[in-house]
Structures are given as structure tokens and as C-alpha cells.
Amino acid sequence: MSEPSVTVWHNPRCSKSRGALALLAERGVDPEVVRYLDTAPSRAELVEVLRRLGSDDPLVITRTGEARYRELGLAGADRDTVLDALAANPILIERPIVLVGDRAVVARPPERALELLEP
Questions:
Q1: Pairing of the two strands 32-34 and 103-106
Q2: Mind listing the pLDDT tens digit for each residue in 27-58?
Q3: Could you report the per-residue pLDDT of 86-113, keeping only the tens digit for each?
Q4: Which residues belong to the active site?
Q5: Class of 1-36+95-119 per CATH?
Q6: SS3 86
């Protein structure tokens, strides 16, 4: 049986994102890299990532410290509003997000990516 594929939602300007990719490479993992700022995930993809994370709360993948978060007035916003904002403003998506099979982690710190390599 083959190993499940590994996907990383990556921002090359983020040291945590680069660190997660380096850790995976050290272990011989060649993930599919999705530059989510260039190709923004759809709302449906965001909901699927939340499911894999085991959460229904989009704030677990939201960069609440971003100026855009404040500009959009998202503090206290409902789930649907936050999901729509994430789909329209991918800069608000936390990085990196690592997906393996039916599971995912926000790899902060980058070592969290390794959790998904364990059965």
C-alpha cells in the first residue's frame, strides 16, 4: 500500500512555512506545494481543511493579527463571514497547513508537520 500524499499550503515568505518544508524534505517527503496566495482555496476547500483539522471554527486557520482582519472587522464575525473572508483574502489564512490523507495540522511550530507522518 502506498503512502498517502502530502500537501503543504505554503507561503515562501514565511519562515515557518519554509521550515516545515525543510523538515519534510529531511525525511524524504516530497509534498505537493500549494502557493495559496497565488491560487486561493475555495470556501469548500477551507471547510474541508477544517474537517481534517477536526474543527468547525475557521479562526483556527485565521491570521487574526493581520491588518486585513481588522480592516474587514472580522472580530466577532460569524463562521460564514469568516470563511467568505478567508476565501476572498488568502493572506488571512494561517500557514503552513499540512495535509496528509484525512488529517491536517497548522504547522506552527513547523515540527507539527511531522505528527502527520506517524500512523
A1: unpaired
A2: 999 999 999 999 999 999 999 999 999 999 99
A3: 999 999 999 999 999 999 999 999 999 9
A4: 14
A5: alpha beta
A6: helix
